[in-house]
Design a protein that fits this description.
The complex is a heterodimer.
Chain A lengths: L2 H46 L1
Chain B lengths: L2 H7 L6 H20 L7 H6 L6 H12 L2 H14 L4 H17 L3 H6 L5 H8 L2 H18 L3 H13 L7 H51 L1 H12 L15 H18 L1 H8 L4 H35 L4 H7 L13 H9 L4 H36 L6 H25 L6 H25 L5 H10 L8 H7 L2 E3 L6 E3 L3 H22 L9
Antiparallel strand pairs in B: 1-2
Helix pairs in contact in B: 2-11, 2-18, 4-11, 4-14, 4-15, 5-10, 5-15, 6-13, 6-15, 8-9, 9-18, 9-20, 9-21, 10-11, 10-17, 10-18, 10-19, 11-15, 11-18, 11-19, 12-15, 13-20, 13-23, 15-17, 18-19, 20-21, 20-23, 21-23
The chains are: A mainly alpha, B mainly alpha.
């Protein structure tokens, strides 16, 4: 196996994995953002009380 | 700048619509910073987002921080000069990050200890003096390390927008970007950083994939590989051969630098891990981030390669050939400009606006993260332990903000006056090495070898200062790099990777010897 073939395979595999990851993180990361803001808001309202 | 260079640099597809995209994007980012400002009251919230970050947001913010504009620029430079052989660094980075995710190497125990910074670990494991020393070395290396960020980031913007043809544009863009970053970082701390990292992740990940597809479509998949073969030969693919510009020593140095240090020791990455809600979340974050840690290097390498192919093998790049590959005696344009100029010509309007906006956001994200990390280390790990009076939270946040502004001034100064000519990635590996060669050893042994003592840690951390000999101006000053009188070529007695490997070896040896010679009274197991 040549270096050229190795890099071709690695490049395609990594890019495909990244495309899947980008979709997953976009969707599930939005959920985490909502949770983070909710927790910080709760904390602040407790501090205000 | 010559008329030919001005003419070549002014050609870009970046237009009014792209400017609008960039401005709107930056306004949204600033809006987020203002929106979350009210949550940044406590030090835990300001520098650690209250340790409330979920795993998926963690992956986004880790990627947002590490996939910065500077990373894209120095990686593209490596791809432009080294071809596909540069890919080995991307693979090493990804494999090492996956290893950290699967085993929890270093970051797992750090998260369990609930420390906010690495020097805080030094105090828990050793003593207060080691914490202060570790903090000083960390800040020295970190601040030197980011010294060229502003210049490199600004070079992308003036390159891609066509402003490079105007002589003074680079300086004004540097000042403008710096002001933007300072306002943004001092406002909301880690919470605003994390949220804008998420937006940046979404925009950049899809933008990067689209831009890569366009580049392949325009240049041709087969043509890209054939041109690299014709231009760089076997060295353009095999990183182990000498004419690749890398070689085995460089590869081993990268296992430490781009591999374990980049993922498990470098404070900006570790600070994300320490802000996660649990150790389990940290590991999940690292396993997924192994993909983005590979991509953050690989895609920019590929863009650098595309720039090489565009200039060397397409008629549209003819006017750039003499600028980047001049005949003997003629001045050469910095190859850092190659990627942004070529992307400005290849990418269509709108996509180029989205990529530029994402890149400016990435620049801001990296900068604010670095400013925040180094300033909080000074506040938490140097000033606070040395103060005898109580140091209130309000005063700590205030000091951190003042330090951020001071660092901004330094970055502008260094960008203008540093005269080293090494590749940006090699400059960063060397300056970062002042901290991480010692810290890698002390952290690793401190976590996994209970006999590691305070004296061993002290010696290990101090040995990192040897990395200063890897900087080009220092090498020239002490005679490690000299000009051959007959050929006029510059020669090195020791290369930077060799100095790096020797320093790691010395740090390991002195930490072990120091620990055995002067053990702590009580052995500590993490």
């Amino acid at each position: 196996m040549t270096w050229e073939l190795i890099w071709k395979i690695v490049f395609i595999v990594v890019l495909s994995l990244f495309a899947v990851m980008a979709v997953a993180v976009t969707v599930l990361g939005a959920r985490d953002v909502r949770k983070l803001l909710a927790r910080l808001k709760d904390e602040q309202s407790k501090d205000d009380e | 700048m010559t008329d030919a260079a001005q003419e070549a640099f002014s050609q870009t597809n970046f237009g009014t619509i792209d400017t609008v995209i960039v401005v709107v994007y930056l306004l949204i980012s600033l809006g987020i910073g203002l929106m979350v400002k009210r949550y940044a009251g406590s030090m835990l919230n300001y520098i650690g987002a209250g340790r409330k970050i979920g795993p998926w947001l963690g992956v986004a913010t880790m990627t947002g921080t590490e996939l910065g504009l500077v990373t894209v620029m120095y990686s593209a430079q490596k791809g432009f000069s080294g071809g596909f052989a540069a890919f080995h660094m991307a693979v090493i980075a990804g494999v090492a990050t996956l290893f950290v995710g699967l085993t929890g190497f270093i970051v797992g125990p750090l998260r369990r200890l609930e420390v906010l910074t690495i020097p805080e670990f030094y105090e828990k494991r050793f003593n207060k003096q080691i914490r202060v020393l570790g903090g000083i070395l960390l800040v020295l290396a970190g601040v030197l390390n980011m010294g060229l960020f502003l210049k490199v980031g600004s070079m992308f913007i003036v390159g891609v927008t066509g402003m490079a043809s105007e002589g003074e544009a680079l300086k004004w863009v540097m000042v403008g970007l710096l002001v933007l970053v300072l306002i943004y970082t001092t406002l909301g701390g880690m919470i605003s950083v994390v949220l804008t990292d998420y937006v940046q992740f979404v925009v950049l990940s899809f933008g990067l994939l689209a831009a890569t597809g366009v580049a392949i479509w325009k240049l041709g998949w087969t043509n890209i590989f054939e041109t690299v073969h014709a231009t760089l030969g076997e060295g353009g693919f095999d990183p182990t051969v000498a004419d690749s510009g890398f070689g085995w020593e460089y590869v081993f140095w990268m296992v430490i630098t781009a591999g374990f240090v980049g993922s498990a020791v470098w404070p900006t990455a570790v600070s994300r891990a320490l802000a996660m809600e649990s150790e389990k979340a940290v590991r999940k974050q690292y396993c997924w981030s192994s993909i983005s840690f590979t991509v953050r290097f690989m895609l920019p390498y590929f863009w650098g390669i595309c720039a090489l192919v565009f200039i060397a093998a397409t008629p549209a790049g003819d006017d750039l050939k003499n600028l980047f590959f001049p005949e003997a005696g003629e001045p050469e344009v910095s190859n850092l400009y190659a990627m942004p100029i070529v992307m400005g010509r290849i990418l269509p309007p709108v996509l180029i606006g989205i990529i530029t906006a994402g890149m400016i956001a990435a620049f801001m994200s990296t900068h604010d993260s670095y400013f925040l990390t180094w300033s909080s280390v000074i506040t938490q790990d140097i000033v606070a332990p040395l103060r005898k009076k109580e140091f209130s939270t309000k005063s700590r946040v205030k000091l951190t903000r003042i330090l951020i502004v001071l660092m901004g001034g330094y970055v502008l100064y260094w960008s203008v006056f540093y005269k080293g000519r090494e590749d940006i990635w090699d400059y960063m590996a060397v300056t970062g090495g002042i901290y991480f060669t010692g810290a890698f050893v002390v952290l690793m042994l401190g976590v996994y070898w209970k006999k590691t003592s305070s004296l061993g840690a002290l010696l290990g951390l101090c040995s990192g200062l040897l990395m200063l000999f890897g900087l080009e101006p220092v090498q020239k000053a002490v005679g490690l790099k000299f000009q051959n009188e007959q050929t006029g070529e510059w020669q090195e007695i020791l290369t930077s990777p060799q100095i790096g490997l020797i320093t790691v070896g010395i740090a390991l040896a002195v930490t072990i010897i120091g620990s055995l010679v002067s053990p702590n009274r009580k052995e500590i197991e993490i």
